[in-house]
Every structure is written in structure tokens, then in C-alpha cells.
Amino acid sequence: MVRNVLGGVLAVLGAAAAVASPFRPWYASRLGREYRLPDLFGSGGITAAHPNLLWSLFLPFLLAAALTLLGLFTRLRTVVLLAGVLALGCTVLWAVRAAQANGDALTIAADGSGVRTGAGAAAAGGVLLILAAAVMTGRVRAPEPAPAGPVPPPPPPPASAGPYADGPDEDDWHAPASYGAGGASGGYGSSRPGPYGSNEPEPTTPLPTIRREKG
Fold first, then answer.
1. Beta strands 30-31 and 25-27, pairing class
2. SS3 string of the chain?
3. Which of 18, 47, 49, 168 sits a CA distance of 20 to 30 A from 102?
4. Which of 102, 68, 99 is nearest to 85 (CA)?
5. To 10 degrees, what angle do helices 2-20 and 117-135 make?
6. Closest alpha carbon to 19 in 77, 98, 114, 86
7. Could you tell me the pTM of the whole model?
8. What is the pLDDT of residues 108-148, one digit of tens each?
9. CA-to-CA distance for 133 and 138, rounded, in angstroms?
10. For residue 209, what pLDDT is reported?
């Protein structure tokens, strides 16, 4: 965050210096906006023709300022670097062509007859823009989400315990000792221990009734 703020300040200062440089004298008393842009790419070098504003050195520096604003808003270091290279490159190319027109030499004189502050501001603006691109951190990429791992299979269903899985255990269930009057053996009547310790069925046949006759 601090690096982006510092880089933004340097970029704004560099763009301001670059876009204001054509309105200051570049060599002797000639302003930067009085140099034709095609003279930088012609083999004849700098001429004495005075162009309009948008066909002069003002155009590349205006484009450099626009690229600077675009790079700051989008936080793209490459765009700011491109603006710095454009501003510094145009200044160096002008120096080469101006030297050709002055006997392959440029002078810096205290009386103002040589290179002036306009060219210096343009060069300083390009250097500040390149430095701003180096200081800025640019966009911070969001961390990529971790790849999703394999989904574990669902747990197997519990083993079936038979028709009475939800009821009491089979080992805890016992049939009753008897059902009604028949008992556990399915017979009728109840059982009682016999004389030798075994169960004997209780007789269920009623004894005959003896009637006494009247005499």
C-alpha cells in the first residue's frame, strides 16, 4: 500500500513535469511546442518551422500523461512504465536531432543560449515515471482457491439384525411358561412334581360319584 502511494506521487509529479515542458524553452529561447513532431523522425533534423500545438512536441507528452493516469487508475505498472519510456524517449530523440542541427553538439550556457529548462523538465518527468513504475507493486492477485479434495463416500448402512432389529434382542426374549390352562407343553391342566422328582400331569378326569341307595 505504501509503495503504491509513493509510486503514485512520483508518477503524478513526472507526468506534470512532462506535460508542462513543451510550454517552456528547450533550446535558447525556442519553446518545446515550437518544434515539429515529424522533425524528430526526419533525416534533416530540426527545422525552423513552427507547427500547431497538437502537431508539436506537446502531443507525445500529452499521451504520456494520459497513460500515466490510466496506469494509476488500473494499477498497472506496465502502463506507467510505457509513459515514462515515451517521455524520456522523445526527449532523447529531440536531443539527437537538435545536435544535428547545431553541428553535432549541444551546449549548456548560463546566458540561456543552450539547452534550457524545458528539455530538463521533460527528461526529469520521464525518469520519474520510470522510477514510479519500479516503486509501485501493481495489482495484487487474489489467492487461488485450494483444489477440492475427493469427496469421501457415504458410510455404509448398518447391518440388518433380522426382523426384530428395532425391538429387544432375540437372546432376551423367552416364551412364557404356559399359555392359559394348557401349559408350556401344549396339554391341558397344570404340571406338578411327581414322586421321583419329575413332573407328572395332574389328572383331569373327574372321579365317579358313589350314590347311596335308599333302603
1. antiparallel
2. CHHHHHHHHHHHHHHHHHHHHHHCEEECCEEHHHCEHHHHCCCCCCCCCCCCHHHECHHHHHHHHHHHHHHHHHCCHHHHHHHHHHHHHHHHHHHHHHHHHCCCCCCCCCCCCCECHHHHHHHHHHHHHHHHHHHCCCCCCCCCCCCCCCCCCCCCCCCCCCCCCCCCCHHHCCCCCCCCCCCCCCCCCCEEECCCCCEEECCCCCCCCCCCCCC
3. 18
4. 68
5. 160
6. 86
7. 0.63
8. 767 777 888 999 999 999 999 999 999 988 666 666 676 76
9. 8
10. 62
Distance CA 70, CA 78 (A): 11
Give the pLDDT score at 201.
53
Cell numbers describing residue 95:
536531443
First CA to last CA distance, the chain: 139
Residue 105: pLDDT band (50, 70, 90) is: confident
Of 100 and 172, more confident? 100
In the predicted model, what is the mean pLDDT of residues 63-71?
94
Contact predicate 151/102, CB 8 Å: no
